[in-house]
């Protein structure tokens, strides 16, 4: 991501100089919207937002579609607990790789094609559930379907071409949160679809296979909508936009090194593995857990499990907003504290969920856990854009991949073996969340400080410009970082705000 | 000493029941793995000579139960001592009023029976519908006289064909749009 960078690090192969077309929303110099009008579908900005989050959500629906139907599928395919657990790990592992690749794809083809390609090419994987007859097939198909979770990257990338960086936190948080909601929607949708098909006369073992056609059709519909209604940039599609003005070509190798050598990148990769990661793991195990432990009907277990994923609707944006609020008074230090508090609280509620013995306490604990984990996701991506300006795309991709890695790891350790019962697994997962959130205390920004240390004398400008070498600065490749640094000075908290030159 | 089952439904335990009160046999209609919905079992049961509680027997429930090998790594099929929690026996075969003489039943395996290894188990219940005693077609360790069943797969040719059709449509539609888009861009650039 970011082979050629414009002012804000998003890949722009030329900016439209056609100012005759008026936009529905006020825009900045790059035609990116400066306000976020939620209920509008006007092109290009809000329409892109809606196309983007709905396609991302569709991918969540299909990736986790198997989860609420596991009690039926496990009998049809004669699965053991290990098989079910391994399929869950497989469902989140594919996108570790695909999220890393998607950044480059967005750069080469644009986010519109990136999204459409992924969504339409993964439709066959969803339909192939009808062929599955054993554990190996089930695990393979879930692995292949999971690739489509890379739409996270195209979604965030697309938002950054359409919305200005001051509101990008809220926009990205809302788009990602509403996308993640798909993990909750599927827990409601699939049991209902299954029930309808059964009532129409199909046997149980055929009905669940037919049910998978619904997410498959959603993939096709969203792919076509994205191709017909979407556009890469505010000025038009990448193909059609003229290449005007200077285009700064950055080297992929340099950006990769920039991302990988910054220790903060890895702190957030780990942290996201224990906020987003545990959310994905829970999406996979929660319906079966309520079905088995509290002897509920499939339909009821699905509703409860759905409320876990649906909390994303406001929890993730709220986390981003809480971070913004903390930054207003305490700067980056406030953001770091907010993240630590929210994510640790989520971990403690997860422990409580594992230990809850009655249905009511379990549901309450689950809801509080979901709020903590999802708000933590929003709060993480409120900090990630500040880790580096030059390598924002790759760091976002790495962090996103880290989420999936964390999910695969927790499912492998706690939910795929006979060593732990599911309730024990949840308890230990909660403990692991608390432990793996501690490294955020080590994240130090020299210009703003960290949770326990004050800032040193390095300025914001120095931090971001230090990513460029002298010869690169001579070529003026660092101008984008300078502009960003100016914007970012508000992260110094209240005392820094007076130094902003408007 | 065998105790009577308690009044409270939640505390009725398997270990309280009289063992081996009924002699049960289950003979598959053919050798090898049986097919659900097709093959049959010949089941017989009669009062065992060692039974003591037969005065309380009102009804006999005959069930199909998982052998231990089908319960391994599948905690949702666990055998529990508390009867209401026990998940060993997923299928009811038949229920008959208790009769002193030998009873038999020819059972065609239900279509929705799952793949696994099974034995036949009977509960003798009293007038209050509480289990009093049991008998099974296998030994106490559940290792003898077991039979295997293969479930229906749920797959259908029509489903497979529909699946392929939609998949092909998706890929083709994408290609059409992509090629079209490239063509339009070439036209615009040449203008």
Share in helix of chain A: 55-70%
Low-confidence stretches of chain A: 1-20, 242-248, 497-502
What is the total tally of β strands of chain B? 9
CATH topology description of the largest domain in chain A? Growth Hormone, Chain: A
Summarize the structure in short:
The complex is a heterodimer of chains A (502) and B (191). By secondary structure, chain A is mostly helical. Chain A is 66% helix and 1% strand.
Characterization of the model:
The complex is a heterodimer of chains A (502) and B (191). Chain A is mostly helical. In chain A, 66% of the residues lie in helices and 1% in strands. Chain A has helices spanning 45-63, 70-76, 81-109, 111-121, 123-127, 135-146, 151-162, 168-180, 182-199, 204-211, 213-229, 252-260, 263-273, 276-293, 298-310, 312-355, 359-380, 392-414, 422-437, 460-465, 470-474, 479-488, 494-497; strands at 4-5, 248-249. In chain A, strands 1-2 form a two-stranded antiparallel sheet. The radius of gyration of chain A is 22 Å and the shape is globular. Chain B has 191 residues and is of the alpha+beta class. Chain B is built from 1 helix and 9 strands; from the N terminus they run βββββββββα. The longest helix of chain B has 34 residues, at 157-190.
List keywords for this structure.
heterodimer, A: 502 residues, Growth Hormone, Chain: A, two-stranded antiparallel sheet, disordered N terminus, B: 191 residues, 30% strand, elongated, nitrate transmembrane transporter activity (chain A), MFS_trans_sf (chain A), MFS (chain A), NO3_transporter (chain A)
Layout of secondary structure:
The complex is a heterodimer of chains A (502) and B (191).
Chain A lengths: L3 E2 L39 H19 L6 H7 L4 H29 L1 H11 L1 H5 L7 H12 L4 H12 L5 H13 L1 H18 L4 H8 L1 H17 L18 E2 L2 H9 L2 H11 L2 H18 L4 H13 L1 H44 L3 H22 L11 H23 L7 H16 L22 H6 L4 H5 L4 H10 L5 H4 L5
Antiparallel strand pairs in A: 1-2
Chain B lengths: L21 E7 L5 E2 L4 E8 L11 E8 L24 E7 L5 E6 L7 E10 L5 E6 L10 E4 L6 H34 L1
Parallel strand pairs in B: 2-9
Antiparallel strand pairs in B: 1-3, 3-6, 4-5, 4-7, 7-8, 7-9
């Amino acid at each position: 991501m970011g082979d050629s960078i414009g002012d804000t690090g998003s890949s722009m192969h030329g900016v439209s100089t056609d100012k005759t077309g008026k936009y529905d929303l006020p825009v900045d110099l790059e035609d990116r919207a400066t306000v976020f009008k939620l209920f509008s579908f006007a092109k290009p900005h809000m329409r892109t937002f809606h196309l983007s989050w709905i396609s991302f959500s569709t991918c969540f629906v299909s990736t986790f579609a198997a989860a609420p139907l596991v009690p039926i599928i496990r009998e049809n395919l004669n699965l053991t607990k290990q098989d079910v657990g391994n399929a869950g790990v497989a469902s989140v592992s594919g996108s570790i790789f695909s999220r890393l690749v998607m950044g480059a794809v967005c750069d080469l083809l644009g986010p519109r094609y990136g999204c459409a390609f992924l969504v339409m090419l993964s439709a066959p994987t969803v339909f192939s559930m009808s062929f599955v007859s054993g554990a190996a097939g089930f695990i393979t198909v879930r692995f292949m379907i999971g690739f489509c979770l890379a739409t996270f990257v195209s979604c965030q990338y697309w938002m950054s071409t359409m919305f200005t960086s001051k509101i990008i936190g809220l926009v990205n948080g809302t788009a990602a949160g509403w996308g993640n909601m798909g993990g909750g929607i599927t827990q409601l949708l699939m049991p209902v679809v299954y029930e309808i098909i059964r009532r129409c006369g199909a046997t149980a073992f055929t009905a669940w296979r037919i049910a998978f056609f619904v997410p498959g059709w959603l993939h096709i519909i969203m792919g076509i909508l994205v191709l017909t209604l979407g556009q890469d940039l505010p000025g038009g599609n990448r193909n059609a936009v003229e290449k005007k003005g200077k285009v700064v070509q950055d080297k992929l190798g340099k950006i990769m090194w920039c991302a990988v050598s910054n220790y903060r990148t890895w702190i957030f990769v780990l942290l996201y593995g224990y906020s987003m990661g545990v959310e994905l793991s829970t999406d996979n195990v929660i319906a079966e857990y309520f079905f088995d432990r509290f002897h509920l009907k499939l339909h009821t277990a699905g509703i409860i499990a759905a409320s876990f994923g649906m909390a994303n609707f406001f929890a993730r944006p709220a986390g981003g907003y809480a971070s913004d609020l903390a930054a207003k008074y305490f700067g980056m230090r406030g953001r770091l504290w907010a993240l630590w508090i929210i994510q640790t609280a989520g971990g403690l509620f997860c422990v409580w969920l594992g230990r809850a013995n009655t249905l009511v306490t379990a549901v309450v604990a689950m809801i509080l856990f979901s709020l903590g984990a999802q708000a933590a996701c929003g709060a993480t991506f409120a900090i990630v854009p500040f880790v580096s300006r030059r390598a924002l795309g790759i760091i976002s991709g790495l962090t996103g991949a880290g989420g999936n890695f964390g999910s695969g790891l927790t499912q492998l350790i706690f939910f795929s073996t006979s060593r732990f019962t599911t309730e024990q697994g949840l308890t230990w997962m909660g403990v692991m969340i608390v432990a793996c959130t501690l490294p955020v205390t080590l994240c130090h920004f020299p210009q703003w400080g960290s949770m326990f240390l004050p800032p040193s004398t390095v300025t914001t400008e120095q931090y971001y410009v230090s990513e460029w070498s002298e010869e690169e600065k001579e070529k003026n490749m660092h101008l984008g970082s300078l502009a960003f640094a100016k914007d970012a000075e508000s992260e110094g908290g209240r005392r820094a705000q007076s130094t902003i030159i408007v | 000493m065998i105790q009577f089952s308690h009044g409270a439904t939640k505390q009725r335990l398997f270990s309280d029941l009289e063992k081996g009160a009924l002699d049960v046999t289950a003979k598959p209609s053919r050798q090898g793995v049986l097919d659900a919905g097709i093959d049959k079992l010949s089941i017989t049961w009669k009062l065992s000579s060692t039974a003591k509680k037969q005065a309380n027997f009102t009804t006999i429930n005959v069930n199909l139960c998982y052998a231990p090998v089908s319960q391994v790594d599948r905690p949702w099929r666990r055998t529990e001592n508390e009867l209401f929690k026990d998940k060993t026996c997923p299928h009811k075969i038949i229920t008959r009023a208790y009769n002193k003489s030998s009873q038999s039943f020819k059972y065609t395996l239900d279509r929705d029976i799952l793949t696994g290894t099974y034995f036949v188990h009977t509960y003798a219940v009293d007038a209050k519908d509480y289990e009093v005693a049991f008998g099974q077609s296998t030994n106490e360790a559940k290792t003898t006289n077991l039979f295997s069943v293969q479930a229906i797969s749920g797959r259908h040719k029509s489903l497979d064909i529909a699946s392929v059709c939609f998949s092909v449509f998706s890929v083709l539609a994408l290609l059409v749009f992509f090629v079209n888009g490239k063509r339009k861009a070439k036209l615009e650039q040449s203008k």
